[in-house]
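Structure first, sequence second, as always.
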């Protein structure tokens, strides 16, 4: 949170855009940090709101409202568990480029079909992320490039 505040302060300075490359580095880092912090802030606020509603229900003795709150416990727990899982699987190199390849092994129709399914799932997953994706699909048995996506 301190680094976010510091970077936001830097980005509001009058001479911030005097060095375009440094400004882009600062803004990229600010975006990375906010992508980490904002989901946790949302979860914290959701839990805080839930606790306030729960306290009000206890004080008023509103059993109907209490029954409506019970399903929210599961969704809040799931939200926090998902954030914890993402954090465990994240690392400092997550924003760096990567090379990912899928090979059909010995080949054949079924293995090529399986590779296409894996590729489709990968494209679907990566398209939800804020990243540049470039693909080169190559079929070994035909020795020709099938498709290039910029």
């Amino acid at each position: 949170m301190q680094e976010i505040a510091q970077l936001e302060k830097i980005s509001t300075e009058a001479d911030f855009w005097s060095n375009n490359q440094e400004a882009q580095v600062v803004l990229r880092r600010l975006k990375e940090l906010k992508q980490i912090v904002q989901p946790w802030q949302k979860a914290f606020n959701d839990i805080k709101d839930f606790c306030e509603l729960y306290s009000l229900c206890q004080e008023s003795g509103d059993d109907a409202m209490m029954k409506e709150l019970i399903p929210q416990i599961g969704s809040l727990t799931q939200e926090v568990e998902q954030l914890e899982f993402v954090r465990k699987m994240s690392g400092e190199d997550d924003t760096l480029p990567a090379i990912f390849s899928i090979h059909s092994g010995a080949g054949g129709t079924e293995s090529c079909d399986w590779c296409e399914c894996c590729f489709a799932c990968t494209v679907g997953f990566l398209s939800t992320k804020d990243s540049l994706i470039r693909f080169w699909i190559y079929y070994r048995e035909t020795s020709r490039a099938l498709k290039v996506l910029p």
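Margin note: The two ends are 36 Å apart (CA to CA).
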